[in-house]
């Protein structure tokens, strides 16, 4: 009755970007996935043309491809007892885009629901929604970081909106990042989700086990440290968000092998960019 | 075995804002809900203090309160046969924030999964993820509309960022809105989700039945017509996004009673604002 799925991540080459949030799920779970980073191939998918079995159209990558592993090579009809029997044809492939939708789809399949995995019924659904909520909050911060260097237009160069970017980045540092980090700090304090389970250290956002929310917060903090090194060091030294920085370190240790491998792409010209003039002076 | 839940929507008074996406779900489903719009009460919830049973902390409203309806008045322990038996104490109340997390939690409970409600197993999960994807895309557009009048800082006045807002709104009209509407147009063309079911008119984003994605797209188009009346009229007359405007009209008809009632708040000073200088000339 086990569902075996083949996963493909479609994302731009060379930058970690939003694809990295999906990549971290597979790496943390130790589940195999393949990648398509060929630009013409991605554009075909985004144009929603010539792709058999496409469902909802995609605004942007990352797109996750999902195919039932049992049927991939056999081309035979599924037995009724098979949990994947709802896959109608042997070659049917599903496509999902939008990072939060992909993460929420993957979480229960990859064991990334934190301690909520132990719950059932309404309690489990609520916990999954709260994990989704924390992911969405981290992804909102991710978007605000992107907008800090492109406050006027995504399609124009940074150099053409540098003055506005300086103002927006100042606001991001002064008002927005602290507000976001405070939410994660509270969630990790034991006033938040998971409650008792977290009081003995090794805290995660929903209990003591790593969830998609922890991976997402890790990646955003990691990217922020690249983009605003002076500012983030000051926050870390300040101690106000100690649990958030501990979580970042814990997840970093957990993903050590991947993070030190060649598969981990360096930050460059994606969401997280280092422009010294946007950092704290 | 039916789960009966009591729902409370926590949102700012006077503006439709992001609370409206949640409100529309209950109104479309004909399911009762109560509201808390008292500002000090909301601030208490956002500060994550003095609220018993709080779980994950909230970055912002809307927040959805969920309580098992069976136990609300009785204070008795649940029978094992009750589907809500996972609610541990009679007064336990759950809180969920982040619009996409709230909508995804509500969709299967309120019959708002479109034709995906007929599916099971992997196919249902994929369809739910695609509906989530379309919602997230519409909510991204909603956020970009907000940023068009606040490109530099949410906490500063519009009047202090009017010049930047003019540039950002011009980019929103020229590049962003058309790109978003194209995605919804394709989804409604029968190339998208739901496929055959939609070819005979009465199309919805996932099949022929209204889902959270249709409600969300409706609300964003509706708000855009308020914020950019000339521009949106031009797009409508152009005919390129005919299915999107038809969907808007269909959902408007479906929600007629609510939309014409006093419960429907007028647009004013929220996400959707009418600044003539940001509209098409």
From TrEMBL, chains A, B:
The keyword Thylakoid does not apply. Residues 5-114 form the GST N-terminal domain. The keyword Zinc-finger does not apply. GO terms for biological process: glutathione metabolic process. Keywords: Transferase. Coiled coil: none annotated. GO terms for molecular function: glutathione transferase activity. It holds the Pfam family GST_C_3. This is Glutathione-S-transferase. It comes from Pseudozyma hubeiensis (strain SY62) (Yeast).
